[in-house]
Amino acid sequence: MEEDWEVLRRLVYEFCECFRFDAEGILEREFMKIIPVSHRPYGRLYAY
Fold first, then answer.
1. Predicted pLDDT of residue 48
2. Which of 10, 12, 13, 30 is the most buried (most CB within 10 A)?
3. Collapsed DSSP state (helix, strand, coil) of residue 44
4. In the chain, where are the structural domains located?
5. How far apart are CA 15 and CA 24, in angstroms?
6. pLDDT tens per residue across span 10-35
């Protein structure tokens, strides 16, 4: 999980350098990791 945060921090800071946004303001928000259905073995068993 810490590995994910390191990647996220690096990308947010890079983005903010280009577009002059506040990186700390973005990073203090809540984030959700989205994974493909293939990583959820029971994902296809449920009706939507």
1. 58
2. 12
3. helix
4. 2-36
5. 12
6. 999 999 999 999 999 999 999 998 87
End-to-end, the C-alpha distance of the chain in Å comes to: 29
Instruction: Please check whether residue 37 is in contact with residue 46, taking contact to mean a CB–CB distance below 8 angstroms.
Output: no
H helix runs in 1-48, sequence order: 2-19, 23-27
CA proximity to 8, closest of 36, 20, 28: 28
- Residue 29 to residue 25: CA distance in whole angstroms: 7
One-letter amino acid of 32: M
